[in-house]
Amino acid sequence: MSSRIELTRVRQTFLVRGDEDRALREFVALDDLDLVVEAGEFLTIVGPSGCGKSTVLDLIGGLATPTSGRLTADGVPITGPGLDRSVVFQQYTLLPWRTAQANVELALEASGGLTRRERSDRAREYLDLVGLSDFAGRFPHELSGGMKQRVAIARSLSHQPQVLLMDEPFGALDAQTRERLQEELLSIWRRTGTTVVFITHDIDEAVFLGQRVAVMSARPGRIQEVVRIELDQDRAGEEDLRSSRRFAAYRHHIWSLLRQQQLGAEQGGDRDEDRELSHV
Amino acid sequence: MSDLLTERTAARPNHRQEEAVRAKGVSVRRKRAVTLGRSLAGLLTLALVWETAPRLGLVDAYFIPPLHVVLQTWWEMVTSGELWRHVSASLVRSAVGFGLAIVLAIPLGAAIAWYRPVREFSTPVLEIFRNTAALAILPVFILLLGIGETSKVAIVLYACFFPILLSTISGVASVDVQLLRTARVLGLSPVETFRKVVFPAAVPTIFTGIRISGAAAILVLIAAEMIGATAGLGFLINYAQFNFLIPTMYAAIITTSAIGVGVNYGLVALERRFSRWRA
């Protein structure tokens, strides 16, 4: 139920129009990025905005193809979207004209091979997994933001993917809902054993969720360091893990990495800064 | 499960909010009653002015007969079946034209919108057609199709076609990119994506076009019937005016308005029914 993902020397460039001369220029989003996600691992990727986090996810999801480099899932090259890899986006992406249940079923309709009855049962099972069985008949506009995201998670898990890719899925939620969903996500992950790649710009979230945290640097996007997190997650329910000393140490370490980067960028990138200012 | 309960509890408004909601609920109901009362009063005023102005000699009672005379004539026409003959002729023509427009414009619009180059190629041409008043090319239709039923159905079709076509194009073209990405991730085939994601998302926009067309269908038809027809409400209005059957003319006009209002209300209700999820 889980795959190993491997990114080798992945480079992604886009053509962008310059601010001054309107000429097309190559913008390097990712430069020689190497990353391995072990089967069944929960990996979080944290980095400043614009560092190419979402690009990494798009590549693994098969929504984009790299300029150069190699991406594999269990050794098989990734060439496009596939049902073995599922994505939860930050924005709510439920179909507003379908109920929660029907939204989950959508994923099963595409994968095929199931009768209407089986689809319905499976959808209920996964809504139950995210604690929404009482809300199966509700339309998205009748659900709170947290509930919508849970439906999206249920939908992504319902076709039993090997890998779950999450692009800041809790970014638009309030703090309490977000923390509760983080805990639920961990328990779902433990139960299903799926490989999870979770993108966030929130250091706390990255440390809390990840077994390893990949810290990215911007311009060009690279993995700066991968931090292994060892926290006693089993006791998360009993005590406030986030205020423990170890948690704080991890948090500070990652914060410093990102801070260093920012300072480095400010010194080295004065010209860049000027251009941005003049553009504003 | 327990945290769901807390969420529901947390989502519950406090006492003051609940009271405010309740108070608002009452006022909403009262407001609705007041609105309805005022609308009826407005209609009644119109009727009253129509009735009294000719009686008091403010307008010539021959050219604008009092309302009760018009209504009397209207009732006679209803009972004799004469009105129905004209109404059904008009309704059949507009329904056929309108129906054909829906059947042709929606698939064509969807196809145009789905292929970006086709869309960019055809949009300016379509804009020109849409902004050419249907009645302006009525002579062309009569020239080509004669003065029979065909030309009238064709003019309705023309008038209805472009609003539906353009709304379908904009509806399909403006589907949320995020939903399309989701469809790709979920492995939906292009056909499935269109059927399950793109088209349902476009329905409310398409319906706006359908509603506009519904009004246009009747408007244009009445005018077309005035030019060349032997039955239909437009013919009846014109015929009555030529023969100085003034109350008959007004009766036909009232019927036209009533049908227009009815069609519009019906389509608005349908539109609401189809876009309930947008709430």
UniProtKB/TrEMBL annotation, chain A:
Keywords tagged on the record: ATP-binding, Nucleotide-binding, Transport
Keyword Transport listed: yes
Record domain ABC transporter: where: 10-243
One Pfam family in the UniProt entry: ABC_tran
Family annotation (PROSITE patterns): ABC_TRANSPORTER_1, ABC_TRANSPORTER_2
UniProt-listed SMART domains: AAA
GO MF annotations in UniProt: ATP binding; ATP hydrolysis activity
Entry protein name: Unannotated protein
Automatic annotation (TrEMBL), chain B:
Biological process, per Gene Ontology: cellular response to sulfur starvation; transmembrane transport
PANTHER family: ALKANE SULFONATE ABC TRANSPORTER-RELATED, MEMBRANE SUBUNIT, TAURINE TRANSPORT SYSTEM PERMEASE PROTEIN TAUC
Protein name, per record: Unannotated protein
InterPro entries: MetI-like, MetI-like_sf
GO CC, any one term: plasma membrane
Keywords: Cell membrane, Membrane, Transmembrane, Transmembrane helix, Transport
Pfam families named in the record: BPD_transp_1
Membrane topology listed for this record: Multi-pass membrane protein
Domain ABC transmembrane type-1 span(s) in chain numbering: 87-271
Natural source organism: freshwater metagenome
Cellular compartments annotated: Cell membrane
Membrane-crossing residue ranges in chain numbering: 33-50, 95-116, 128-148, 155-173, 217-237, 249-270
Organism ancestry: unclassified sequences, metagenomes, ecological metagenomes
